[in-house]
Amino acid sequence: MMYKSTRGSNIEVTASQAILKGLSEDQGLFVPTDIPKLPLSIEEMSKMDYKEIAYTVMKEYLTDFTKEELRSCIEKAYDEKFDTKEIAPLFHADNAYYLELFHGKTIAFKDMALSILPYLLTVSAKKNKVTNEIVILTATSGDTGKAALAGFAGVEGTKIIVFYPKDGVSPIQERQMVTQKGDNTHVIAVHGNFDHCQTGVKEIFSNKELGRELEKAGYQFSSANSINIGRLIPQIVYYVYAYCCLYKNGHIKKDEKINIVVPTGNFGNILAAYYGKKMGLPIHKLLCASNENKVLYDFFQTGFYNKNREFKLTSSPSMDILISSNLERLIYLLTGEDPEKTMDYMEALKEKGEYKITDEMKRNLEDFYAGYSKEEETFEAISSLYKKTGYVIDTHTGVGTHVYNEYIKETKDKKTTIISSTASPYKFTRYVMEAIDKKYEGLDAFVLADELWKLSGVPIPRAIEEIRTAPILHNTVCQVKDMERAVKEYLGVK
Ligand SMILES: *Cc1c(COP(=O)(O)O)cnc(C)c1O
Fold first, then answer.
1. Cβ atoms of 201 and 188 closer than 8 Å
2. How many angstroms separate the alpha carbon of residue 313 from the centre of ligand 1?
3. What whole-number distance in Å separates Cα of residue 402 and Cα of residue 425?
4. Which atom of ligand 1 is nearest to the CA of 143?
5. What is the pLDDT of residues 364-413, one digit of tens each?
6. Residue closest by Cα to atom 8 of ligand 1
7. Residue 195: how many CB atoms within 10 A of its CB?
8. For ligand 1, atom 1, which residue shows the shortest CA distance?
9. What does the alpha-carbon distance between residue 441 and residue 435 come to, in Å, rounded to a whole number?
10. Any residues with Cβ below 6 Å from ligand 1, and which?
11. 258-263 and 283-290 as β-strands: parallel, antiparallel, unpaired?
């Protein structure tokens, strides 16, 4: 199995090289030359645990990893860091199965991939005779930063530097980051917004001279963002696992088709489910759920992608995105794997902020159904699910639930459905508790956590307990223009 770029240049790289590079030199994303089929039947896989299914799926993609290497990555990733042996349990509530992807260290679904990426990356470095220490640079609007810090903390041969907008993340998210332990972790607050952080990081990456200085000092940069195939591939696993669980427990028959609902931002999670379908998982529709930043909804309706619009801050901040980077991989497939056409669309997006796909391409979008949820609708979905069943979901999952309810009304489709539950309600207590009852308005984040425990019967996760009392270990703040200097200082490079 080799990987090629969505934007051409005919170069093929191995899986480990694609993981190391993150992005292709022509700025395209790496895609497998062929999407493999599931190597075993659902019956066979339904006898396996999460780690065994992870191995079965991932070995088809990471063909230059030895059996021992891949197994060791999986063992180290999916261990007691997760608060349940199942890793990604299903919870049945109302008319759907919630696939809880928030049992990792930072209680959001980013842990599913960022728990294993550091190990995939260090093995990839060894394989390609990289002796430099790998320095991960990440800009975050909240969830990715902490998940990446937790994933890379203490991993030999790596350092991680995270930039976040000083006043642009939630109090819990900030606390999670500034209390991060580990000698190889560094967190920097930036006087600016997320875009400033992201642009600053991109500039540091593309600074060739800095690259040479780093090389001399024995370092090289890499990235942990969601376009890395080392994040995409581990995400396919939990959809296969969930399908097998439904089958094993008699909720679906052999080959029965199901729907999957995914609260979507950068299009990474839902793309993984789409890859699962291409591998042979019996999936009817993939429901792409957006919040009020509904670029994707509009795109699926009209075939016209347009990011020129007002950016809205919502209660589901991890989906507040106007450029869904991973959509490029779907566009590439829709063009019939034509890198030149893909490049044209992406150039248009960069220059004009918009592009329109052909009618023929649009016809091939029938695997998807798209919807969106307004703020009040999300709160209503959280509150009515709680009142009906006692089950509490977070705001991102609330977006998915609303869109699913609309889909049922519209189509009367009764197929068994999985809703990707992307964060613990404990991460967004303020919105969740207020949605359930106005009496919680204005209470402190930790008081709300105690109340949520009483209400849901689900104990407060370690991730929240830990930061209640943890000492603050990072207090570096810098101006946007000083980001590069801050990196050099931390690494001791002049
Ligand atoms: C990142 C994130 C999403 C969006 O996932 P994408 O792969 O970017 O589409 C949804 N919910 C939560 C809680 C997230 O952290």
1. no
2. 15
3. 16
4. 15
5. 999 999 999 999 999 999 999 999 999 999 999 999 999 999 999 999 99
6. 266
7. 14
8. 318
9. 9
10. 108-110, 143, 226, 263-269, 318-319, 396, 422-423
11. parallel
User: What are 98-120's pLDDT values in tens digits?
Assistant: 999 999 999 999 999 999 999 99
**Mutate which of 106, 266, 295 to test ligand 1's pocket (most atoms within 8 Å of Cβ)?**
266
Residues 238-278: tens digit of each pLDDT: 999 999 999 999 999 999 999 999 999 999 999 999 999 99
Closest protein CA for atom 15 of ligand 1: 318
Ligand 1 atom closest to 269 (CA):
7
Q: Which helix (H) or strand (E) holds 220?
A: strand 219-222
Model confidence over 289-333: pLDDT tens digits? 999 999 999 999 999 999 999 989 899 988 988 888 999 999 999
Cα separation of 364 and 328, whole Å?
A: 15
Residue in this structure with the two tokens 């600074």, named with its chain if needed: 207
How far is the C-alpha of 442 from the C-alpha of 363, rounded, in Å?
A: 48
* Amino acid of residue 412: K
Mutate to test the pocket of ligand 1, among 286, 319, 399 (most ligand atoms within 8 A of CB): 319
Quick one: angle between helices 67-77 and 117-127, nearest 10? 150
- Cα separation, 35 vs 325, in Å, equals 20
What are the residue numbers of the active site? 110
Widest pairwise Cα distance in the chain? 64
For residue 403, how far is its CA from the centre of ligand 1 (angstroms)? Answer: 16
Report CA(134)–ligand 1 centroid distance (Å): 25
- Residue identifier of the C-alpha nearest atom 14 of ligand 1: 318
What distances in angstroms separate CA 372 from CA 266, 405, 409, 422, one per listed residue? 15, 11, 14, 16
Encoding tokens for residue 160? 């991680």
* Residue with token string 């509150």: 383
Distance CA 351, CA 346 (A): 9
Rounded Cα distance between 494 and 476, Å, is 18
Q: Which helix (H) or strand (E) is 463 found in, with range? A: helix 462-469
CA distance 392 to 398: 9
Please tell me what DSSP assigns to residue 138.
E
